[in-house]
């Protein structure tokens, strides 16, 4: 069996060590005589797994004690609604920076439930940059200020966080969580779908400052209330048990095999620089994002010729480099190089691109 180099934007590659460990433990987890998938979430064995997952996440991300960690379902997309339902309860307004499709979706969902205010947008240049922000345009009474930290489709990321003063900063970190250290104390809420850097789809992680878990808007369903999950250790109902177990294995890999998030950042920078340096020197391939805002995780690029793009994607797939086609709304190519993509994978892709350029010049 040979594994492909998978550049999917998510779900995406998992570390091979994690998959092997999960395979080893598939039929009999730790002498329990069952798979983690078959276990009651109320069992002692399972409680130890979720507790360890939370404690590793707290350790690896250096999460302060005044934050709650919630293991939820419904994807990052459900957070687009849970945030206004639970947080937009004082002034009923929230500020948004529109930096791509996911930020726009969070904004539109909020509009259904609260007053959503657009502070800035990079739509004028197809979201190829992060707008400069002027704090005097922020709503001082907003209940929260929302950003999408890494824009999966367009390949941009924030280099500086907006100064929102006392207004809680809320960030969608679906496509950058665990890719580098992040100062959790600067945020009111961080949330992420797990299917890029944390584990399989089906798990959504929410890290929320405890004082923000108040009472939701009247009529908010129980399952969409942060308080429900916080008061029940993410076990009000059945949590995504297997996804949490894989997340635990991924966190063990980050801590023990990689050596933590500083090391992960260095590794991710080496990987991204390999590809960006090539894009900057190539006469055929060009990156599409303003250099200052380049993502470490998602790298879009084009040849400028749609037929050549299609030929590249097809030949790359045949050579074992899969899922390089750009998002349907952007075209061209995109290489998502999340934590689990090995350095050799990026090097091999760059070699393949050089070869393609030489043959098609
Ligand atoms: N936000 C970002 C930044 C994403 O990349 C994605 C998924 N690609 C989402 C939100 C939506 O996540 P989900 O599919 O988990 O709802």
Fold blueprint:
Blueprint: E1 5-6, H1 16-24, H2 44-61, E2 67-72, H3 75-87, E3 93-98, H4 101-113, E4 115-121, E5 144-148, E6 150-151, E7 156-157, E8 169-172, E9 189-193, E10 204-209, H5 226-231, H6 241-258, H7 261-281, E11 286-287, E12 298-302, H8 306-318, E13 321-322, E14 333-336, H9 343-360
Parallel strand pairs: 1-13, 3-4, 3-5, 5-8, 8-9
Antiparallel strand pairs: 2-10, 6-7, 9-10, 11-12, 12-14
Helix pairs in contact: 1-6, 2-6, 3-4, 7-9
The chain binds 4'-deoxy-4'-aminopyridoxal-5'-phosphate (PMP).
Residues 10, 75-77, 102, 148, 152, 172, 174-175, 193 line the site of 4'-deoxy-4'-aminopyridoxal-5'-phosphate.
What descriptors fit this protein?
2 domains; 361 residues; alpha/beta; binds 4'-deoxy-4'-aminopyridoxal-5'-phosphate; Aspartate Aminotransferase, domain 1
Gist of the model:
With 361 residues, this protein is α/β, with parallel strands linked by helices. It is built from nine helices and 14 strands.
Would you tell me which CATH topology of the largest domain applies? Aspartate Aminotransferase, domain 2
Quaternary state, please? single chain
What ranges have pLDDT less than 50 throughout 5 or more consecutive residues?
Answer: none
**Broad shape:** globular
Relative strand content: 15-25%
Give the proportion of residues in helices. 25-40%
State the CATH architecture of the largest domain.
Answer: 3-Layer(aba) Sandwich
Q: Kindly report the average pLDDT value.
A: 97
